[in-house]
Amino acid sequence: MSGAILAISGGHPLTLFSDGLGMGDLFIFGCVLSWSAYSLLGKRVMQVLSPLMATFCAAVVGMLALLVPACLEGMPSAMPGYTVLDWMNLAYLGLFGTVLGFVWYYEGIRSIGPSRASLFINFVPIWAIGLAHVILGEPVTPSLLIGALMVITGVTLNHLPLAGFRLAGSRARP
Predict the structure, then answer these.
(1) What percent of the chain stands above pLDDT 90?
(2) What are the start-end ranges of the E strands in the chain?
């Protein structure tokens, strides 16, 4: 998590407190909270539904939740102007970014549990930074590289079977 904070803050984590939080920061914080809730609920849902059915149900709930804001933003009147490329992009996002990604995530929850699977949310800012570099030409600074390395190291260490190693007060992993 400290790697993600370092990357987000541009190498100056204390500025998150002194400069205040922007809307993007609040959105990322909401993302983390939502993802944690999604992961914890996912463990219970996996006892009853397959990953594909759970993803379908989550997508329907998400679609209904976003329908009102989308309509308020003018989506119905904009739809006739959508090009074939627009529809192909939506289909790609729906299939790969939603169905495939979430089915695999639920499989991960089933395999390693929600606590360990949810650690992968720390990769979101790293991917956002990488895509901003590739797509928008944003610079990759040393703090971003160090933050990315910290995230990768932290998630990797958390998933290594460390036989006999345990922090004081922590429970042993199965």
Answers:
(1) 13
(2) none
